[in-house]
Specification:
Elements (H helix, E strand, L loop, with lengths): L4 H4 L16 H4 L4 E8 L2 E9 L5 E8 L2 E4 L5 E2 L3 H9 L1
Antiparallel strand pairs: 1-2, 2-3, 3-4, 3-5
Length: 90
């Protein structure tokens, strides 16, 4: 007799496993761009905190039913104390 699909599927919560990066641990830490999302003074800011091709920039945004919407296409350069605070939170 053929078993039903429900009988052959095991409960995934019973598995004692962990995730491993597909290309290994060194590739998992080879991040080329780091984005930081913050909420400051009533405004949401997405910051480029680490990038080999872009300066540290910040973009104000809203969250809408269709996703993230930038308030302006031009970012604000994040220098000095603002940049240091972002890096410290990561």
């Amino acid at each position: 007799a053929e078993q039903s699909r429900a009988e052959t599927i095991e409960d995934p919560s019973d598995f004692n496993s962990h995730l491993v990066a597909a290309l290994g641990i060194h590739w998992a830490h080879a991040v080329t761009i780091r984005l930081v999302l913050e909420f400051r003074s009533g405004q949401r800011v997405i910051k480029i905190a680490k990038s080999s091709i872009s300066p540290s920039m910040g973009f104000y945004f809203n969250i809408t039913s269709s996703g993230i919407s930038l308030l302006d296409d031009e970012g604000v350069e994040m220098m000095g104390q603002k940049q240091t605070q972002s890096a410290a939170k990561v």
